[in-house]
Amino acid sequence: QVLAYSRATYETVAQRVIVTVVPSPAGPPRYQGEFLVANRDVEELLPLPARRLFSEAARGVWERGDLGIVNVTSALHRGARVPLPIEGRREGVYVTVGSHGPFSQCLVAAASPQSRLRCRLGQQPVAGCYDTFAPRFSIAWCNLSLLEVPVGSAAPGPAPGSGVLEEGGDFAPPTAAPAADLLAGSLLTLLLPLLLAALLCLLLGHLMCCRREGL
pTM for the full model? Predict the structure, then answer.
């Protein structure tokens, strides 16, 4: 069931879609790369024309013809912050593409430890190839992730549970924390403000009573 809402009017609409997934005869792509598109929202990359443009740009960097999109995820689901309501700001989208061929030298260099070090220093990462994503897609190369899936296994992903708690007996709460000595802290919290208040009262009384004209 797909639930959508309008950001302008907050109207919601629900639709049930039946999706039939047929495994690929060649299996999942062995080589997968994840790109962070900083200048797009997730709904802008879901339409087929946008995904085709991204696939063509990724083929130019990967140098493979059998490249395909595996997953499209909003950056908000990965811990990113909601962008400011300023024109031109986007949420960001993580796009995972896969191929049965190895990574290009450009991608290997962009994800190398030397490139990660340059990113931590605030410098541009190592990328010697021509960026075919520009100017349509702004790629955050410091967030590039490369994954090689072993032969005969599926790509790692979240393992959904059954939604029912397993039977494990009665709930055993954690052991109580050891008793702490709070006397010193409570005395300091109470006596210090009282001492300061007494000193202020004495100072104020001295100024009002002993500093009068003629005394």
Answer: 0.60
